[in-house]
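Regression test attached.
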Amino acid sequence: MKQRVVITGLGVVSPLGTGKERFWSNLCAGKSGVARVTRFDISQYPTQIGAEVRDFNPLDFVDKKEVRRMDRFGHFAVAAGRLAFADAGLDPEKLDKDRSGVSVGSGIGGIETLEEQMKVLLEKGPRRVSPFFIPMLIANMASGYISIEFGLRGVNTTLVTACATGTHSIGEAFRVIQRGDADLMVAGGSEAAFTPMAFAGFCAMRAMSTRNDEPERASRPFDRDRDGFVMGEGAGVVILESLEHAIRRDAVIYAEMAGYGTSSDAYHITAPDPDGRGARNCMARALADAGCAVEEVDYINAHGTSTDLNDKTETAAIREVFGEHAYRLVVSSTKSMTGHLLGAAGGIEAVACILAIRDGIIPPTINYENPDPDCDLNYAPNRALQRPVKMALSNSFGFGGTNASVIIKKFEG
Amino acid sequence: MDIYGKVKALISEQLGVEEGELTMDTSFEDLDADSLDIVELVMALEEEFNLEISDDEVEKIKTVGDVVRYIEAHA
């Protein structure tokens, strides 16, 4: 029999703050985390804005020696993991560590380290490349660090599915517990790609907004004048556990994992299938997995990147899957405030869904000013909505045509 | 700064320990340094003192004093 899976802990490092409550209050207040990029010299780039994490000191979470041996995406992952662990009230000493695991992914991994060490190689030669280069680079080290930090000896896995990483990582962790391979999983995503090379690459794709003179207004999903995504960074991690395990340890339960669906566009390396089939399929599969009717979904946290193609394709896919109900439910894109955290997006957006369920508040899509006839749903424009949320769906779509949706519902005994 | 002082400063930076905790007798095992830490430290020493330390020589280095004596003999 399948185990029921509940969510009992939340950890966030985001452009809107570190810690779930700061993140959530800023989201509900409609604050933008976007500003001019400061992590490197941005003057030569066509896009000069992004949502950087600004209130974060790795030494608050990682000891001094380890800080130097970890890329920034590792700092974020360990921090979000520790915050989630503490939020869940978990005592590592009371945990069956052989039955506890990790699935925290990254879209890119330690690219800042890669760029620094490439310079060392070119300037000083191969004998000066750091022995920590490879462990700092590889994307599976987010899960590795968290596993070591808490001594978790069960599953230790990593999914790398570009911007769908966080959602796939949570969905697959849900499956691990459902089928009984673990009692508890730390799941989510981490990303730190504000680097000269990564930023140049996204600029070359013409994928990012160039609204440099109005950073806070640049991420405008579903608005007619959207002109590309705005990069963000950070990590979003949740604690998933079997209902049985959560009850046994008297955990506070935020919500229940209800469904998970995945699909592939099989169409183009970066552009979504204009027919929206991939997006439709993963939402429909998640709904089937949850065994629920479309009318039960109150809120969709959209992928909503603020690119021309994504927002209209995703809107059309929601219309097709949900029919008339598409106009009754609320869709919002929290990327309007956080920017696009790439592989961590699904992590923080799952947290947004969970807190929407907890508080009965739907965070807004800010910068929604001029309706686009192709985007005609209720996007919670500019102001949070007070409305009970029993069931929320979160979408993530990645380069390579990879798609994932999770459905989270209010926990009812 | 003398060689001992420079070595202590480098080790402190690389391994995240206070300089005041280091003596000539402090061993890298006491400092929880793993093989990767040692490789990184050796690179930093090679840069600082402009010399090359072979892997065979690295094997023999167990304490802060071993480092200082090696550098005094070779720099």
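Expected vs. actual: identical. Chain A has a mean pLDDT of 97.
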